[in-house]
Amino acid sequence: xxxxxxxxxxxxxxxxxxxxxxxxxxxxxxxxxxxxxxxxxxxxxxxxxxxxxxxxxxxxxxxxxxxxxxxxxxxxxxxxxxxxxxxxxxxxxxxxxxxxxxxxxxxxxxxxxxxxxxxxxxxxxxxxxxxxx
Length: 133
Prior knowledge:
single chain; Anti-sigma_ant; Anti-sigma factor antagonist; STAS_dom_sf; anti-sigma factor antagonist activity; STAS_dom
């Protein structure tokens, strides 16, 4: 199997038991999305409800990365959790804004800001099939 043209580095820290700070470095695209998804799935499996995604070192993200962010957002809503993107690069921010993802998934400038927003997340899980007003 050939090495990815643009390898991805993913580091996970746990600021609290229910919070995963995931720092991503490299291109988040079709070649690296599976690795990113595996890290998120592992944290979901271990009971993390809040995901802080530091994308400050991601120079490029395509729809593969965006779709994974939206999927983990949907999963966390079932457990009254949240997803927050931290300090995305201008190119990534543009993708999030143009696609409307930044309306659904909050964007924070710092880890502290994202942690504070995670603390404000609703405590009750979203009912399956429930629609927002």
